[in-house]
Amino acid sequence: MAHAGFAVFTWALVTGVAMAKSGLATEQAVAMSLLVYAGSAQLAALPLIAGHFPIWTIWLTAAIVNLRFVIFSAGIQPHFKNEAFWKRSILGYLNGDLNFALFTAKYPRAEGDRLSLPYFLGMSLTNWVMWQVGSLLGIYMAGFIPQSWGLEFAGTLALIAIVMPMLKERSALFSACAAGSVALFTAFLPYRLNLVLAVIVAIIVGVGFDKLRISRRKS
Amino acid sequence: MTNFEVWVVILGLTFVTFITRGFFLLMGTKIELPDVVQRAVRYAPAAALVAIIIPEVFFGSGYTHFKDFDWYTPQLWGGLAAVLGFLISKSMVFTILLGMLVFGCLRLTF
After folding, report:
1. Which of A24, B82, B84, B86 could disulfide-pair with B99, CB 3.0 to 4.6 Å?
2. B92–A6: do the CB atoms touch at under 8 Å?
């Protein structure tokens, strides 16, 4: 989580700067950070707000950018489906890219482990705090952070260090290569739909690879 | 956009986050996801991260078209250096430092 914390922090810092520079009032940028809490959707919404797009198109854009989280929610549903509605609301709201990745790595199957909920919650709240610190810092320091630092690239590099250990298994490696290729060749689709396509193709490749291995073992 | 409208947008976006992130979880026990789904979803997080990383490394920031691809993209070489750095060291700090070093040097020279 310490590693993921750095990635979240730089990512948030960049998003905070972008919000402040997009013409949002400071209190609006702060509210957006605290409430919306979805970096890619926020970044997608900013130019639309500045461009006076119809409100429903902004909501729709954010929903499409967030589609991958719908898939993630299916991943935590078996773990937490028996919790009270208000608990599920909070757990779902907090389920971002990095904490979901770390959670599935530790708990690949729902086996009723009593520690899975505190683990998820602790990690997710750390993630939330790191995000807000980075984001608020970005909002208030936007004037002092020049674009030329290329700070956002440090966040991307941190993601590289986070994702590499996830690719140890052959099936995961193949599936991630498929995801990378799809994301690259569909990079210019609107609404960051390349993310959704990449995730879907990666799942198909990964599951296909598993099936192939099982059938080989049988024969 | 008026101040009020921006607030409406922000509150709506909060709802969007709530619904998309919670989607299947909010249904609770009303839906029974088969085991296959859980095994399949294992591949989603790494895929999403790779899909965020790869276009940024290949095109740098602010890309709008395939024609923008350029071998002299500092992010491309910085990213490759970071991958190598991780394979050698398994350390995040070293990975970022090496990547930023290559990225920074190339940005000054290209």
Report:
1. B82
2. yes
pTM, two decimals, is 0.82
Helix B3-26 and helix A85-93, axial crossing angle in degrees, nearest 10:
110
Q: Does B40 touch chain A (CB under 8 A)?
A: yes
Q: In this structure, are residues A9 and A130 in contact, taking their beta carbons and an 8 Å threshold?
A: yes
* C-beta of residue A134 within 8 angstroms of C-beta of residue A173: no
Q: Identify the DSSP state of A189.
A: S
| Cβ-Cβ contacts under 8 Å for A99 (sequence gap 6 or more) | A4, A120, A123, A124, A127
**Is the sign of the CA dihedral B39, A89, A159, A41 positive or negative?**
positive
Segment A207-211 shows an average pLDDT of 91
For helices B44-59 and A170-185, give the axis angle rounded to 10 degrees.
50
Q: What is the ipTM of this complex?
A: 0.86
Is it the case that residue B110 has pLDDT exceeding 80?
Answer: no
Q: How far is CA A134 from CA A33, A70, A149, A187, B4, in A?
A: 10, 25, 16, 27, 26
Tell me the CA distances in angstroms from A204 to A109, B36, B41, B49, B105, one per residue in order.
Answer: 19, 12, 10, 17, 40
| B55 close to A183: Cβ distance less than 8 angstroms | yes
**Interchain contact, B49 vs A97, CB within 8 Å:** yes
